[in-house]
Amino acid sequence: MSSSSRPSLASRLTSRLPARLRSVRVTPAFAVATVALVAASSGTGAYAAKLIGGEDIRNGSITGLDVRDGSLFRQDFAKNQLPAGPKGATGARGPQGPAGAAGPRGAQGPAGEQGPQGEQGPQGEQGPRGEDGSTTRWFLVDATGAIVAQSGGFEVAAAYPELANTAPAGSPSNALRAAGNVYVDAGEDLSGSGIVATIALQNQVDQNGDGVTNGRAASPDANPEFSGEISATLCGLAGVVACAPAGTNNAEHLVISPRLSDGSVTTSQNRKRFYVVITDGAITVG
């Protein structure tokens, strides 16, 4: 409602008079005097509470200076009208929640590359003897000439060694006379023991570079990963076997000679893995 359409203060005062006095003409001076009298007798607060309402206040005319501190609350304002306060300090960390259920197992990844050969483990104990008093011992030598598995008690004395040249002056060198062999210390006298050696396949090593490692190449001697020759014997057999490396020409040592299928000496590019089994009391070596 505009100020021009509101009843005048004199009209509103007249409406509050008793019926017998409403015929009295209220002049502006009378109205001011009446307001002053009421204000003086009851205070401006009582007058405002009784006479001033929302229709008496012009919209937009009341400022923050006119509002008593602490008299307004959040619900007195429209939604989102009050500005947000500063961010409070981070609260204390709550307790850890329970572990969730395990997720599904992922797909198996590709096989990694073969790692380097580990160091040779300590010598194991000698196995028990059989009912006939015999024992069976064994060891596995890899392509480098190292023992990689065994029943216990074996140690490599020399693997494919190049020895000092002992040939007479002017003769060809004999430094490679033991280079095709592996010499093993058995840790005990092997006299009267049986010695069996066999080539062990290695189908993850392409020894001849033909791309075939499944043992099915068509031509003869084309599968060195599976094939080869091997011989083994006790050292120090008088008139039969003499072992060249120092300290090996006795009954506590044996010599194993892996060869290619044509009998030629293996090299560092095509050496063989092999097993050796020794049975005490089963075969007399001589």
Automatic annotation (TrEMBL):
Gene3D superfamilies: 6-Phosphogluconate Dehydrogenase, domain 3. Transmembrane segments: none annotated. InterPro entries: Collagen. Residues 89-126 have a biased composition (Low complexity). Residues 80-135 are annotated as: Disordered. Pfam families: Collagen. It comes from the Bacteria. This is Collagen-like protein.
